[in-house]
Specification:
Blueprint: H1 5-8, E1 21-25, H2 32-44, E2 49-55, H3 56-65, E3 70-74, H4 86-96, E4 101-104, H5 115-121, E5 128-130, H6 133-138, E6 152-154, H7 158-164, H8 175-189, E7 192-195, E8 201-203, E9 208-210, H9 223-236, H10 241-263, H11 270-283
Parallel strand pairs: 1-2, 1-4, 2-3, 4-5, 5-6, 6-7
Antiparallel strand pairs: 7-8, 8-9
Helix pairs in contact: 2-3, 2-9, 2-11, 4-5, 9-10, 9-11, 10-11
Length: 285
């Protein structure tokens, strides 16, 4: 699949803000790796700047691990989750720092106190990619998806999608049922849904992209965080949200296939996919 010209060619007189400023919001005790993976994937996917908003030690880990990213250390609560007091801090930062896109939820934890943060972020009028615990928090009050100002991309795996539908996360869907429910959900809430599986589906309820790349080695922790970073980076660089989701899913899987050729499916880990993003992107150019 050939990537859009916007991702293939850069103007000689461009600078970092030409390629967008991505804010990643999440983290909690023991889950800072999710932020590291999302940030590194976004940077490898061409975004000009990345800032990670996190509390406590989660912010410190990002500071040490991702030298190209900036950090916004915000008020924290129990287990270094982001507290309610951080909501105005993050809102002010978004207004002042020329943020183009937000990725919400990586390693965030699940807590009713995080709902005000989720509500605030999806009312910024900026494009938002919601992943992982961002989805699990929103499933506590799904109606907030219908009362928001921001265009959204949601990236659930099947269990997270079932929670959003108010069903058991252990419910199994075949491909036909999954497509029908994904279409209905995307239309109802006017958003882009990336339903992750061995053939990930991207839909806005009218258009569909079914990914045929990827391998079973991707069934490992952190792979979804990498995908969220890639999609967020593509949106921040100016792609429309459906295209960013489609190309993000494709490039993510292409990188995983390239990594598996060298390392094997059994040994594949999420950071391997980040390492192969440059080759995957180059192959699409």
């Amino acid at each position: 699949m050939r990537l859009p010209l916007r991702l293939r060619k850069r103007k000689p007189d461009s600078y970092k803000y030409t390629y967008g400023h991505l804010l990643i919001v999440g983290g909690s005790a023991g889950m800072s790796g999710a932020l590291v993976l999302a940030a590194e994937a976004a940077l490898r996917s061409g975004v000009g700047l990345v800032t990670v908003a996190a509390a406590g030690k989660a912010a410190e880990v990002v500071d040490m691990r991702v030298v190209e990213a900036m950090t916004l250390k915000v008020a924290g609560g129990k287990n270094d989750t982001i507290s309610r007091k951080a909501v105005p801090q993050i809102s002010d930062f978004i207004k002042k720092k020329r943020i183009n896109t937000v990725v919400l939820g990586n390693g965030m934890g699940v807590n009713a106190s995080l709902l005000p943060l989720c509500r605030s972020v999806i009312n910024t009028f900026l494009p938002v990619v919601i992943d992982a615990d961002g989805l699990n928090n929103i499933s506590q009050d799904i109606k907030i998806l219908g009362r928001r100002n921001s265009p959204l991309v949601l990236t659930p795996h099947q269990g997270e999608f079932m929670r959003l539908l108010g069903k058991s996360p252990h419910t199994k869907l075949d491909a036909r049922e999954g497509k029908k429910l994904a279409q209905s959900f995307a239309l109802k809430y006017n958003l882009i849904l990336v339903l992750k599986s061995h053939k990930t589906l991207v839909t806005d309820g009218k258009r569909f992209f079914e990914n045929k790349r990827g391998n079973p080695g991707m069934a490992t922790a952190g792979v979804g965080d990498v995908l969220a970073g890639v999609i967020g980076a593509f949106i921040a660089q100016g792609l429309d949200m459906f295209s960013a989701a489609k190309y993000g899913v494709y490039i993510h899987s292409q990188a995983a296939d390239l990594a598996a050729k060298e390392k094997g499916e059994l040994s594949l880990i999420a950071s391997d996919i980040i390492d192969y993003l440059p080759l995957a992107i180059k192959s699409g150019s």
